[in-house]
Write a structure and sequence with these properties.
About 25% of the residues lie in helices and about 15% in strands. The protein is built from eleven helices and 18 strands. It is globular.
Amino acid sequence: MGTGSYVPVFLSEVPKLMRSGLLRPDVAFLNVSRPDRHGYCSLGVEVAAALPAAETAPKLISQINPFDYVVECNEPLPQQQVTQATDIEARIGKHIAALVPDGATLQMGIGAIPNAVLRELKDHKDLGIHTEMFEEGAIDLIENGAITNLKKTFLPGKLVTSFVMGTNRVYDFVNDNPTIAFLDSSVTNDPVIIGSNKNVVAINSAIEVDLTGQVCADSVGTRHISGVGGQIDFERGAALSEGGVPIICLPSLTKSGTSRIVSTLATGAGVITTRPHVHWVVTEYGAVDLFGKNLVQRAQALIGLAHPSHREDLERAAFERFGIRSWL
């Protein structure tokens, strides 16, 4: 059994680590499709890191195509079932959908909240997708004509992604589909490329947000539960976009009933999205834009997004922290 550790890095810079030689893999294990009639394989449903790994590793091991080693495998692709949104997630979805204009370019992650947003967008027009990943909810909007990708600046007419996850419906949809562009994360997650599209709406989740707007999205205290991913890539890209809407969303409470809007982040919690990067924050109690607000104004706005049972304690902590006796 080997050992491993976690490298904090933006997903957009993972290819750079490999291509620069700073963290070049010794061996790349690749999951590829069966050869087409011309003998070519694709990297399947993930190219975010697989493409630079294939380009830079001195030894390639794939499941199908004869590289250095071949492993035959009938293992099915991972399945991510669509989950039914709770009432809280549905309310968050409605608040976010209200921020999405016609012609917007969407980035969304995985889970119930992004799908809840997508269900609210069925009557929108000329939406596009430029994202790190997408799942099943987007297909319904493509099939009903709400998503056309025609208003995008970067690769108009194409849905841009670096990987997909979902049910067989998703995998069947992307299979041999010329309207889907799979690109590695140095392209999909480049904030400048993202921001070249107008009206980018970036939807990303958080574990907790403190009263100054700092966002923890990768750990519960000192316990890591996720990587950095592309959150800051897309939050910044949306901020650079003309008419862009960078969004951080989260339920107001944890499953145990503690507040996820907090006076200070938990000890050891990592800051993924910093105070100056944060714009919109959404819970089931509404949406607030922190851009241009001072620390006291941010605290007041975020307390309004907290669960009512925690607002008094948060207000007391804010008054003590900022040395005030009432809201300014």
